[in-house]
C-alpha cells in the first residue's frame, strides 16, 4: 500500500518538543516533510523557557534520517517561527498550531495572570503564527492549517474557564479562516485531541494517561493537511484513544412566535417545550446564512399579522 507522503512539504508545528506536537513532528519527518520543531520549553503552566525539548526532537528526527530545524520562540512571536521555516527551507505548506499550557483554577480564584497567559498562548499565539503564515499561503495558493481546541472548550470543564474560552474561541477563528481561505486553497480545521501527556497527567489518572498514545491522534491530522484534501475545511474533529469523529452544531426546530400573541416572556414560555426539543425537526446550520430562513418567515409574519393562514416552504406558519 502506498504511504501518504509529505515529500518537499514544509510543516511548522508549535509546541513540538513534547506530547502531541512531538508525535506530529516525528511522523511528518518520517513521511518526507521538512519540519520546524517549535517549542518554548517552559513549564506546563507557561513559566520559564529552555531550548532542550525542541533540540531533543530535532536530534531524534535527524538520527532517523529526517529533516528538521528547532525554533525556541514563544508562539506569541509567531513571525519569528514562520521566518525560521522560510530561512531554513524556503517555504511553508502546513501550520499546526498545537502549543498549549494549562492554568486550572476555579473561577472564584482565577487571577488576571491565569486568564491572560492562557489567552496569550492559545488565542494570540495561534493568531500570530497564522497571521505570519497567511501571506505565504495566499501567494502560493496553498496552505493547510490545524488549530487545536479541546473537549473542554466544546463542552466546558470545571476549573478551566480561561482555557475553555480560549479553546472555543479557536473554533470561531478557524471557521472564519476556512471561509476566507477557500478561494486561495487554504484549508483550516479544528482538532479536539485526547492524549496522555504532561498536560493531561495533571488532570487524568495515570492508567488513562498511559493508555492514550499521542501517536494515535496523528493520522487524522495527516489526512486533513495533505494536498489530497481539497474539501474538508472549517470542520471540528475529535481524536482520542483510537476514536475519530466529527462535531457539528445542532439547532432545535424551535418555535416561530405569533406576533398576535405578543413577544412576551409568557409567550416564549408557552413554546418552551418546542424551543428545547431536539427529538424532531432539528437543523445542522453551517453558516450565518442558515439563520436567514427564520428571518424571512419573521418578515412575512410581521407584514401579515392580520392573515388567517400563512404558508412558507409549503408549511403553515400561522393559523
Ligand atoms: P504538552 O505539554 O505535552 O505539550 C505542549 C508543548 O507546548 C510543550 O512542549 C510546551 O513547552 C509547548 N509550549 C507551551 N507554551 C508555548 C509557547 N508559548 N510557545 C511555544 N511552545 C509552547 O501538551 P499536549 O497534551 O501535547 O497538548 C498539545 C495541545 O493539545 C495543547 O494545545 C493542548 O491544549 C491541546 N489538548 C491536549 C489534550 C490532551 O489530551 N493531551 C486535550 C485537549 C487539548
From TrEMBL:
Catalysed reactions listed for this entry: a (3R)-3-hydroxyacyl-CoA + NAD(+) = a 3-oxoacyl-CoA + NADH + H(+); a (3R)-3-hydroxyacyl-CoA = a (2E)-enoyl-CoA + H2O
Molecular function terms, GO-annotated: 3-hydroxyacyl-CoA dehydratase activity; isomerase activity; oxidoreductase activity
Keyword Lipid metabolism attributed: yes
Keyword Lipid biosynthesis: no
Pathway terms, separated by semicolons: Lipid metabolism; fatty acid beta-oxidation
Keywords from the named record: Fatty acid metabolism, Isomerase, Lipid metabolism, Lyase, Multifunctional enzyme, NADP, Oxidoreductase, Peroxisome, Repeat
Top-level taxonomic group: Eukaryota
GO BP field: fatty acid metabolic process
GO CC terms, sorted: peroxisome
EC nos: 1.1.1.n12, 4.2.1.119
Location(s) in or outside the cell: Peroxisome
Function: Second trifunctional enzyme acting on the beta-oxidation pathway for fatty acids, possessing hydratase-dehydrogenase-epimerase activities. Converts trans-2-enoyl-CoA via D-3-hydroxyacyl-CoA to 3-ketoacyl-CoA.
Subunit organization: Monomer.
Family: Belongs to the short-chain dehydrogenases/reductases (SDR) family.
Protein name according to UniProt: Peroxisomal hydratase-dehydrogenase-epimerase
Organism from which the protein derives: Lepidopterella palustris CBS 459.81
Organism ancestry: Eukaryota, Fungi, Dikarya, Ascomycota, Pezizomycotina
